[in-house]
Write a structure and sequence with these properties.
Elements lengths: L1 H13 L3 H23 L2 H17 L10 H59 L3 H11 L5 H8 L3 H18 L4 H8 L2
């Protein structure tokens, strides 16, 4: 009997009966909002979710096919919408936390950016002061990450010459960049 009444109500709504729709809204809004509240823990969000569900129900009334109980459909839709909202909220929270950490890092890095820029300029100037062959050996080793054997083959020189040139390049750069040495240990390890 109840199922038939609900089917009749749904047929009226899907045919555009605003009074039937309004009656459905008034009879279920409060209980559905309380149900949504159990998931989202916020009355305003719960009300928005239920209102949105009823809004979509009305807008899609002609294409929706509700064969079971309207009440069951509404509860299932509220539950699914709430769970999706919670998933979305977790993603937003993660993004917000990540963005906040990045912002803090950016503030900390603003000062270090100046130092890095200055350091980068100093390194470039120091490397440019190296004799051409020594510079080639250094760049191939440190920036192209070639092994001494590969550098020797590429430049058609002995591995001993590569070792010698690297030793001299590192010694020169250590002296040239001694004020920045703690920051350069990774670059000049030899």
């Amino acid at each position: 009997m109840i199922a038939q009444i609900e089917q009749d109500i749904w047929q009226s709504i899907s045919a555009g009966d605003e009074l039937a729709y309004e009656g459905l809204f008034k009879s279920h809004f409060a209980e559905l909002t309380l149900y949504a509240m159990r998931f989202v823990q916020d009355m305003e969000s719960a009300e928005e979710i239920v209102q949105d569900i009823f809004f979509k129900l009305w807008n899609n009334r002609e294409s929706l096919n509700i064969n079971a109980s309207i009440k069951s459909y509404l509860y299932r839709t509220v539950k699914n919408t709430c769970l999706n909202a919670l998933k979305h909220q977790k993603v937003e929270d993660k993004y917000r936390d990540h963005f906040s950490r990045e912002l803090q890092n950016d503030e900390l890095n603003a000062d270090s950016w100046m130092v890095e820029t200055e350091l980068s300029d100093k390194i470039t100037v120091a490397i440019d002061k190296l004799p051409p062959e020594r510079k080639k050996v250094f760049v191939l080793s440190r920036f192209e990450e070639l092994k001494y054997r590969e550098i020797a083959e590429k430049l058609d020189i002995s591995i001993k010459t590569v070792e010698n040139q690297m030793g001299k390049a590192l010694k020169f750069l250590r002296e040239e960049l001694k004020d920045y040495l703690p920051l350069l240990i990774f670059l000049l390890r030899g």
